[in-house]
Design brief:
By secondary structure, this protein is an alpha/beta fold. The protein has two domains: 142 residues, Aspartate Aminotransferase, domain 1; 243 residues, Aspartate Aminotransferase, domain 2. The chain is built from 16 helices and 13 strands. Bound molecules: pyridoxal-5'-phosphate. Keywords: Aminotransferase, Transferase. InterPro entries: Aminotransferase_I/II_large, PyrdxlP-dep_Trfase, PyrdxlP-dep_Trfase_major, PyrdxlP-dep_Trfase_small.
């Protein structure tokens, strides 16, 4: 190992404080497999949308803001098959999921609530809450792994007034949808019985659409009919290759709706009508091709990860929901994620070390790395070839 280290001195990334700081560094790297944003080119169908951009721009200049908001929201919830959310017509739009999360955080702070947050998860969620002065306690994702025990595990483990889940989870791809309605029903039943605010980040939900294994049922029907107090966050940001022109959403149960609305209007007035008009085209296109433009590329890159890691010290973890990131476990007595990340970075391949996803106990993440899949297949194949070369130096 020392041989390779002395051959080339890799830049220092161990002092970076969070995943986003890694992702910023990775943006300068040839093979950036760090951030889960979409860096692939347009599909043939999506190119047709891009060629109509001037038309969409002028159209958005002419119409009413409310029209573009309505069209966008309808297209989104229609694609996601969420008729109850569509009919409730109370979803608030923002520029980014982190803004919606901040609104949730402001609400928690205002209500003096601490939160129990799923672990592992993208550290940005924890950091946003922490920076807003909201205390977060971890709950291991494993607490949700057996539908018969969810209620009991939550009853035993949750000590705060709010429970914050990410479904499907980033990075693991775990989703309660694998149990049909049952998993969410148990979570909601627990929150209702124990008077807990349920916050759910659904930013990765588009990766469950058109997948028979994890079909998204009408989750808002369950939330609304149960009477649970909830905040649900949705997003477009990780799905379509639109250069981070995105729109996120937050929906609140009726009992807290006005309070949340008042916080929301302290943060923003509206999302760009041009962005909404453009995103609506992507949503409608994906409804037509059953998300093929998005899913086919991810499937192809995921297959290559599986093949590349086969027989190496990196064990590919098959996710329940085929999200846009791959999660792999290091099977080696000494090699940590921090070290492996550094070795790959020295070759120009930037992956994320798992420690940051274990936001309460980083050491637990030293056995995992995350690989982003929403990339051009040619570049991705070169990155995987390099990755394999590095891994082969560390045969078991
Ligand atoms: C990326 C991500 C966010 C934050 O999205 P931004 O567009 O960066 O604000 C929130 N939740 C999940 C699950 C994410 O993957």
């Amino acid at each position: 190992m020392s041989q390779h280290l002395s051959r080339e001195v890799p830049p220092q990334t161990t002092s970076l404080l969070d995943l986003t700081q890694h992702e910023i560094e990775a943006l300068r790297t040839r093979f950036n497999l760090a951030d889960a944003h979409t860096h692939q080119r347009q599909s043939d169908r999506q190119q047709k949308i891009v060629s109509r951009l001037p038309e969409l721009w002028y159209e958005a200049e002419e119409g009413l803001q409310a029209t573009y908001e309505q069209r966008f929201t309808e297209a989104f919830f229609r694609l996601h098959r969420q008729p109850t959310a569509l009919a409730a017509n109370k979803t608030l739009l923002s520029y980014a999921a982190s803004i919606s999360t901040m609104v949730a955080g402001m609400f928690l702070k205002q209500q003096r609530m601490a939160v129990t947050l799923i672990e592992p998860c993208f550290d940005n969620l924890h950091d946003v809450l922490a920076n807003m002065g909201v205390a977060a306690h971890p709950i291991d994702e494993e607490a949700l792994h057996d539908p018969d025990r969810i209620y009991e595990e939550l009853r035993r483990r949750v000590r705060t007034d709010a429970l914050f889940l990410v479904d499907p989870n980033n990075p693991t791809g775990f989703t309660l949808l694998q149990y049909g309605r049952r998993g969410f029903e148990e979570v909601v039943r627990y929150c209702k019985d124990h008077n807990k605010l349920l916050v759910i980040d659904f930013c990765f939900a588009s990766f469950t659409l058109f997948d028979p294994e994890v079909t998204r049922f009408d989750v808002y029907e369950l939330l609304e009919s149960s009477g649970v107090t909830y905040l649900a966050i949705e997003d477009t940001g990780k799905t379509w290759p639109v250069q981070d022109a995105k729109c996120a959403m937050i929906t609140a149960s009726d009992d807290i709706r006005e309070t949340v609305y008042n916080i929301h209007t302290s943060v923003l007035l509206n999302v760009s009508p041009f962005t909404l008009n453009m995103l609506t085209q992507y949503l409608e296109d994906s409804a037509e091709d059953q998300l093929a433009s998005v899913r086919d590329l991810l499937t192809r890159n995921r297959e290559l990860v599986r093949k590349t890691l086969d027989g190496t010290i990196l064990e590919y973890q098959e996710p329940v929901a085929k999200v846009s990131v791959a999660w792999a476990r290091i099977d080696h007595p000494e090699l940590t994620a921090t070290e492996l990340q550094r070795l790959l970075y020295a070759e120009g391949v930037y992956v994320l070390p798992g420690r940051y996803f274990y936001w309460s106990e980083p050491g637990k993440g030293e056995s995992y790395i995350r690989i982003a899949l929403a990339r051009e297949p040619e570049m991705f194949a070169d990155a995987m070839a390099l990755t394999r070369r590095v891994l082969d130096r560390h045969a078991r």
